[in-house]
Design goal:
binds adenosine-5'-diphosphate; alpha/beta; binds magnesium ion; five-stranded parallel sheet; 20% strand; 10 helices
């Protein structure tokens, strides 16, 4: 059977989120919202809903997740970079980063890991933990800034700062340095799928991130990420 990226199956139900035209999927935001509502219910419970006030932000994110290069470019989003999703506690950052990869898993996927867990692992196992993130796999570091400073046998380490610097090196490395598989540079140099991407959710703003991780990290953040923010007045959805 042909792959059908425009049809999502949940149990016995099917949801069409777009149409195939000229071999590409033309996604339909209204249908995407319907699907996300349903998938959100399945993942997070019956209180989940798409908030009207979040729709402009959601639209941007959806364009990114389906890798709609044209719409993203119009909104100043670079589909080769990762996402840095910021906003107040409880506005729904983590939920969206768990939900949205279901839209087009063949285009955008990553493992989502709370930064707190990374530091706990570091404290238990030491510097070998950093190596795990120095690989060409995509990650979303959830809740950057809440983690404590790492400490392994009294050796202190700004764990996430170090990891972000090595993720930057992976991101900027040219594809042919990353993979032996590609002999032809031309065939991969325009493709974003070879770029190692990192995504972040955080409650901190740019100044706070700089204070926490230093100027070296902050200047790289701008290069690596599209900065996407919930409104500071966004409601806490826990209430
Ligand atoms: N769109 C939504 N509708 C209903 N509840 C939501 C929605 N988004 C998040 N929540 C709930 O609100 C709480 C906080 O969401 P979360 O994604 O953890 O926020 P953040 O990561 O921004 O702190 C969670 O209990 C989550 O299930
Ligand atoms: Mg969160």
């Amino acid at each position: 059977m042909k792959p059908q990226p425009h049809i999502k199956t949940e149990g016995t139900s099917k949801f069409q989120i777009g149409e195939i035209k000229n071999n590409t999927v033309q996604y339909d935001f209204e249908k995407i919202k319907t699907y996300l509502n349903i998938k959100g219910h399945i993942l997070f419970g019956k209180n989940f809903r798409i908030y009207k006030e979040d729709e402009p932000l959601l639209f941007k994110l959806c364009c990114y997740f389906i890798q709609d290069h044209y719409s993203c470019a119009q909104m100043g989003i670079d589909t080769n970079k990762g996402l840095l999703l910021s906003g107040p506690v409880g506005c729904g950052k983590t939920s969206l980063m768990k939900l949205l990869p279901h839209l087009a898993p063949h285009k955008t996927n990553y493992e989502i890991i709370p930064t707190r867990n990374i530091v706990f692992n570091f404290n238990a196992s030491g510097f070998e933990v950093l190596e795990k993130y120095n690989e060409t796999k995509n990650y979303c570091f959830d809740d950057l800034g809440v983690e404590p400073t790492g400490s392994h046998y009294a050796k202190e380490c700004n764990v996430m700062g170090e990891i972000l610097l090595s993720r930057y090196d992976l991101f900027t490395r040219h594809p042919e340095q990353v993979t032996e598989r590609s002999r032809s540079v031309v065939s991969v140099s325009h493709s974003s799928k070879w770029k190692t991407k990192t995504h972040i959710t955080t409650n901190l703003n740019a100044q706070e991130l700089e204070k926490r991780y230093g100027n070296r990290v902050r200047s790289r953040l701008r290069e690596m990420f599209n900065l996407i923010s919930f409104d500071q007045a966004s409601t806490d959805k826990r209430k």
